[in-house]
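REQUEST FORM: STRUCTURE PREDICTION
Request ID: SP-0412
Submitted by: Lab K.M.
Chain count: 1
Length (residues): 83
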Amino acid sequence: MTSKVEESVAAGEALGYEQARDELIEVVRRLEAGGTTLEESLALWERGEELAKVCRRWLEGARARLDAALAEEEAAETEDDSE
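STATUS: Completed
RESULT:
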């Protein structure tokens, strides 16, 4: 049997960045609007935290790919200059 945390992580990994961001925006909107019970608010806040982590992982991955591409380009330019 899987834990709720494992299920949550698996579900979060299935979300694309835009999907997670859009859902996070909706969660924030609902929290700011109020009118929910404490239990509902806590559930929304927890979901928002999960979605923020998904977005952060996507952005960190994109940054790593950009950094790798820039380093590769810089290495190629350095190699061309030394010839």
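NOTES: The chain has a mean pLDDT of 88.
Reviewed by: T.R.
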